Amino acid sequence: MNASTDLDALTDFFDRYGAALTSGDLPAIASCYALPGLVVADTYSFSFNSPAAVALSFVGAAPDYQDRELVAAHARIEDVRPMSALLTMVAVEWEFLDSRGHAVPGERYSYLLRTTGEGPVICTVVRTA
């Protein structure tokens, strides 16, 4: 097994993750994370050690997407860097589609992914500029 740098596999992973985010599918979101996991931003950091903790950290995301009428998310992969035999750093800009079919700019994140037998999982998320 090697670090996932295959763009098709990474695109499939982020498509699944984006669909889970916009639909509020908390178990599917949690299944995209390695445990323990870490989220880092300019003013906060938090970690989680269970699928329930991952799900709890995303409870507010689905209503936010619904309030903004965002119905789909697409991860535009900007950079892929193998970090070790099983770790890959992936820079992503999220693009959203609203209920009227308009593109809505998103945010940028870097994801440290670990390759497992089931595919990539997120170890660390860093919100970037």
UniProtKB/TrEMBL annotation:
Organism: Micromonospora cremea
SUPFAM superfamilies, sorted: NTF2-like
Protein name: SnoaL-like domain-containing protein
InterPro entries for the chain: NTF2-like_dom_sf
